[in-house]
Amino acid sequence: MASSVSTPRYMAPAASALAQDDLAAARTHWRAAHKIYQDLDHRLATVLGEWLHTLDVMSDPAELAGADEARRRLCRRLI
Fold this sequence. Notes:
Blueprint: H1 12-19, H2 23-39, H3 44-57, H4 61-78
């Protein structure tokens, strides 16, 4: 009998909403999501890791919003 492993709900929508107001809190959500997917050896862990690296060098809110939208589209394709 095969066991099924359910993937936790992706936490980035909450983090995306926070990014404009509180980037530090948003990073905390993204890091938590990254750890969950990394522990599951899920392919989203790579995307979230790259996103966290991108956040370390990004400071312009408009640039962040555009990059966040691109990241969300990519993640939807990988789920």
